[in-house]
UniProtKB/TrEMBL annotation, chains A, B:
Residues 9-145 form the HTH marR-type domain. Coiled coil: none annotated. GO terms for molecular function: DNA-binding transcription factor activity. InterPro entries: HTH_MarR-typ (IPR000835), MarR/SlyA-like (IPR039422), WH-like_DNA-bd_sf (IPR036388), WH_DNA-bd_sf (IPR036390). It comes from Asanoa ishikariensis. SUPFAM superfamilies: Winged helix' DNA-binding domain. This is Transcriptional regulator, MarR family. It comes from the Bacteria.
Length: 152, 152
DNA sequence: CCGTCATAGTTGAACTCTCAACTAATTAGC
DNA sequence: GCTAATTAGTTGAGAGTTCAACTATGACGG
């Protein structure tokens, strides 16, 4: 009954696994080394920096980062200790919290960004031709689409 | 100086990030739920099951799994507690250790495999057409190749 | 041989993530 | 309005990962 992987699929799966793991590990290591934060935390700062007023509801932010609420809660607690984010009560829903990017957080992000972008470019985009980039986009969208359906 | 990402690259990067994260999270959750182990541990069992005599040197195994030595050491310790792997002194190098898949470990793997493969198929391959699978393979190889060069 | 350097693997602490349980506030049904 | 069900977010414990420090063995140059 099991629909096993054929050789082509098996090889693709292992290559994909190896590549994404190595890529993420490299970016995480670089970011940790140069900016003192893991990639997941960097992404939180990015999302906040793009939000109006540099703030977002916790849930919104969790969705944007593809993170669980719990994970985000712990992460924001950590970022608060660093002084890069602060929490604020939501004015329209008394259950809610806003995560707000501080000026110091924005400064950190501005410092970290060039190095990280260079990492993404050199490890990923420099290795692919334009049509591969386009295809990677379509492939990623397809995977994400499938997973969203599964959840529904 | 910084080679920033253009819109197409930015969108591709975020889609890729979201897709791989969601995919790995889903597979990890399924494996944890159905087999009581994370994906990284499953991979260790797979590699051992493919090795002659069901055993491998720790370093070899770490390389095969794209894992650090430390990570593997902790993981094998955990798998040893579960009785799925055991350690054995290497006969040719007194510094070395062999990780050996136990019969019970093999049984666990055999039980876990169909569910996991179904996950990989439904979440990944069912979402892609054959040419996308082929392209994903080439893209993954390119990324991996680039990272290996970087290290050298 | 002997000192130096590299390799194999482990360890503990600090950190991050997951999961389930929990509080508190909002919404929906009757 | 009042109770029940959702939703927002937090918390603590347990599990996995990272990093640097460490032990022990093997390899190499003189």
């Amino acid at each position: 009954m099991t629909r096993w992987l054929d050789d082509q699929e098996q090889a693709t799966w292992r290559a994909f696994l190896g590549a994404t793991r190595a890529l993420m590990d490299a970016l995480d290591r670089e970011l940790q080394h140069e900016a003192g934060m893991p990639h997941a935390y960097y992404e939180i700062l990015v999302r906040l920096s793009e939000a109006p007023e540099h703030n977002m509801r916790m849930s919104e932010l969790a969705d944007a980062c593809g993170s669980s609420r719990s994970r985000l809660s712990h992460a924001v607690a950590r970022l608060e200790e660093s002084g890069w984010v602060r929490r604020q009560d939501c004015p329209t829903d008394r259950r809610g919290q806003l995560a707000v990017l501080t000026d110091e957080g924005m400064r950190q992000l501005t410092e970290a960004a060039p190095g990280h972008v260079e990492g993404v470019r050199s490890h990923l985009f420099d290795q692919l031709n334009p049509s591969q980039v386009a295809e990677l986009r379509r492939i990623s969208d397809a995977i994400l689409g499938g997973l969203k359906e599964h959840r529904a």
